[in-house]
Amino acid sequence: MVLNSSWSWLPWDLSHIFHLTIILSFAYVALKAVQLYRKKQYLVKVLSSFPGPPAHWLYGHVKMMKPEEEFLNIAAWTEKYPHCHPLWYGTFLAFLALNHPEYAKAVYSRGDPKALVAYDFLIPWIGRGLLVLNGPKWQQHRKLLTPGFHYNILKPYVTLMAESVKEMLDTWGKLVPKNGTASVEMFEHVSLMTLDTIMKCAFSYQKNAETDRDNSYIQTVFDLSYLFYQRLKTPWHHNDLIYRLSSKGRQFYKACKIAHHHTEKVISERKDSLKNEKELENILKKRHLDFLDILLCAKDENGNPLSDEDIRAEVDTFMFEGHDTTASGISWLFYCMAQNPEHQQRCREEIMELLGQQDEIQWDDLGKMTYSTMCIKESLRLYPPVPLIARELNSPVTFADGRTLPKGFLTALDVYGLHRNPEIWDNPEEFNPLRFSTENSKHRHPYAFLPFAAGPRNCIGQQFAMNEMKVALALTLLHFELFPDPANLPIPMLQVVTRSINGIYLKLKALH
């Protein structure tokens, strides 16, 4: 048989093709093995001057990151290595964990980008929004969204926050018997409240999330947070193809669709309303636009609106960050109040004196909650909502002790370890709000307390979150006394936010 000359380059014997495929496959595997070996050697060399806890040759420190043990190990590592230490997620992914203010300042005072090797795992869920963007596009979006958190916009949100908190308290009132107590799991109720708040404030979405006790979005966010952190701790799932084919990967992408359906519904309803010329005119007349107004009305330097992809990424990001991190902060704040009744009562007395007979809280009241604010900050110290924040160095860094890291290396701000570092905090496990008195704050390192990160990439919504925590604390303490539930003490665990393995159960007693 004579082959056409245009096909003469093909081997006529199929066995040759098979053998060639085998050889190329082996060559590819060998090349990848050499690349990974060199990467491992590079990581080991860079980290050689930074001692840390012994790591398994294959799993790194992952075996020490079991949910019930991880925070305990972080505290122990911080005590033994009070400046920094390596943190290995398997064999080929390593961070330098920073748990000292001077080390945190050296990196987080700069504008280094997020470590996409980790944050990439979030992109199928929240897209390329402000949390994961880098470079000029991040600067553009940050500048665009900052006006959405101007204090003139935050002022009227206090009323909306109070409405959502009161809905939660009404629900609790139905669960707590008169002259008795009931054990209530905080995180579920508080999550619904903070979701309702962010929907009303940032998206002018008036349907009440708290009346939907089966709200699928809350559970979906929990599932996605869990699956994201499990992927980070499972080295072979770092490969996209392997992860997509795994049962956990299929579960993750299915949950992403549910989350996207929720946010797309919010966006489409607002877009439909903007088609009404009168409604559009009313929005444009506002002195200050809400978060979604800003996104939908924004134009780039060429006069083009943001793409649908960019809008959904920012909405997905703020829908998650605006409710889940705050829910963590408020839930652990209530736990700290229950564990420390003398501080709870002092906060209650401050709030009662401030509000008098009124049951309403106003913007001007928030700045006068001095002792309550100290308690909020102390709870954020002990239970930071976001316990790890990763960066990729865009230039080399030299620490105060002369040790260095090269460009491109990954760091992780260990907020939990930083906030419990015994070199920085006396009796770090003790709940002591006076640490945040005006006098004591003067003498504290500016990078010792970083619940909202630091530098140019700090949390854009931190004032919103602090206001919501103040409103929630004030109204809750006016209506309920909080007690610990000894039968259900929480076990903190690290995910995207600080959660509890077994929930955060408190006993509630109505005051009226």
Automatic annotation (TrEMBL):
Q: Which UniProt keywords apply?
A: Endoplasmic reticulum, Heme, Iron, Membrane, Metal-binding, Monooxygenase, Oxidoreductase, Transmembrane, Transmembrane helix
Q: What is its main location?
A: endoplasmic reticulum
- Any one cellular component term from GO for this entry? endoplasmic reticulum membrane
Location in the cell reads: Endoplasmic reticulum membrane
Q: Which residues bind heme?
A: 459
Pfam families to which the protein is assigned, alphabetical: p450
Q: Which residue windows are transmembrane per the record? A: 12-31
Give one GO molecular function term. oxidoreductase activity, acting on paired donors, with incorporation or reduction of molecular oxygen
Give the required cofactors: heme
Xref: InterPro entries: Cyt_P450, Cyt_P450_E_grp-I, Cyt_P450_sf, Cytochrome_P450_Monoox
PANTHER family attached to this UniProt entry: CYTOCHROME P450 FAMILY 4, CYTOCHROME P450, FAMILY 4, SUBFAMILY B, POLYPEPTIDE 7
**What family does this chain come from, according to its entry?**
Belongs to the cytochrome P450 family.
- Its name, as the record gives it, is Cytochrome P450 family 4 subfamily B member 1
Q: Which organism is it from?
A: Podarcis muralis (Wall lizard)
